[in-house]
Amino acid sequence: MDVDQRYARFQQLQSYVGWQEGDGERLRQLGPLVESHFDDLTADFYAEIERHEATRQVMVGGQQQVERLQATLKLWLGDLFSGIYDAAYVARRWRVGLRHVEIGLDQQFANAALSRIRAALTERIAADWKGSASDLIATLISLHRLLDLDLAIIEDAYRYEYVLAQKRTERFVAIGQMASGIAHELRNPLNVIQTSVFYLRNARRATPEKQAEHFDRIQRQVAIADSVIGALSDFAKLPLPNVGPVEVRKLVEETLANHPPGERVSVTLSGLDEAPPLRGDSRQISIVLANLVRNANDAMPDGGRLSICAEPHQEGGSRWVRLTVADSGPGISAEQIYRIFEPFFSTKVRGIGLGLAICRAIVDNHGGKLRVSSTPGDGSRFSVTVPAAD
Ligand code: HEM
């Protein structure tokens, strides 16, 4: 949210609480009357912080921080009675919420502290008041309106900045997970290659068969490492789909040939010939199907049932093709199911967690939908719905 948006929001709330020109003027005139109380208000504010473990522990910056906080609170109080509540005022108020997120203060304590400040100001203004009762009421209403607006900005800022801070942390965690995922995925083939190279260099009586075996191993491991890098670069710069008609049966059969299910997995195919061709980038759609088939296989290391079903689907006046890949594995828990499409989230021991994120990006780029449903103990179903070719 930029400065103008924050100010526009403030003005909207001002109008909601019924803020008038006169409110600002009344507060400006009140300024000189309340200034003499700022010291005790600040002292009371700080004494209350000291009385509670939750707020005391936020003050990690020692005496210097206490002094800074007291000085800024006085400035904050002075600002309340300046009579000028413009975009710069809103920006200064916003900073309070931001600063509280940075120091990890529970927002509820700012609300409680404001309640103390409000009560103390009301008491002191009433005690010092020399004018009429109706003027006093009008002045207090102006003050409460402004304090409510202030609190609204501080809360808004707190929520907004808190979410940003959380996203930053999540990004760091994700980068960490990605780095360790990639390291893990590449270290395995490199170790195998190193062992074979060592053998080829040092084995005294290596038979040609044994040598060929090691060269094959090296080649296989290079291919594995290459596929990891391929997945990463697929993800980094997924090209826009180059669409054309894709025959469903051909797509499914080629995918199964390249990613054969385990020996004890029985495969059921249905609807492949009845479904119309889909409109998509055949290379990208086969990446999606390959990922779903591979995941289904990985979910059934001891065998099970894999079914791939194609069906035409009508929605929103358009024709679609829906491909469903279902397995009879252990299913996905309720906590995991919300996260499985996130990049770098993986439930596999060895996995960088990019497969489903790439699938979702591809299907989104095709204007389609990728959905999952799963019952723990009773397998998972992934369905890809993409436009049918005209
Ligand atoms: C309505 C209540 C409160 C108001 C109006 C308020 C006001 C402020 C202001 C104006 C700042 C300076 C922001 C800046 O850097 O520009 C600040 C910072 C800070 N506030 Fe609050 N605050 C409130 C409640 C609290 C509470 C309950 C605590 C409890 C510990 C607290 C702790 C702090 C701390 C530690 C800082 C950082 C000081 C520094 O290191 O410079 N605040 N607050």
Brief synopsis:
It is built from 13 helices and 7 strands. It has 390 residues and is an alpha+beta fold. Strands 2-4-5-7-6 form a 5-stranded mixed β-sheet.
Task: Annotate the secondary structure layout.
Layout: H1 3-17, H2 21-34, H3 38-51, H4 53-56, H5 62-80, H6 87-103, H7 107-128, H8 133-202, H9 208-236, E1 244-246, H10 248-258, E2 265-270, E3 278-280, H11 282-298, E4 304-315, E5 318-327, H12 334-337, H13 355-365, E6 369-374, E7 380-387
Parallel strand pairs: 2-4
Antiparallel strand pairs: 1-3, 4-5, 5-7, 6-7
The structure holds protoporphyrin IX containing FE (HEM).
Protoporphyrin IX containing FE is lined by residues 49, 55, 58-59, 61, 65, 68-69, 72-73, 76, 95-96, 99-100, 103, 105, 109-110, 113-114, 117.
What binds here, in terms of ligands, is: protoporphyrin IX containing FE
Number of strands: 7
Amount of beta strand: 5-15%
**Run of helices and strands:** HHHHHHHHHEHEEHEEHHEE
- Work out the helicity level: 55-70%
Put simply, the count of helices is: 13
Write down the domain tally: 3
Uncertain stretches of 5 or more adjacent residues: none
Q: What would CATH call the homologous superfamily of the largest domain?
A: Globins
Structural class: alpha+beta
Silhouette: elongated
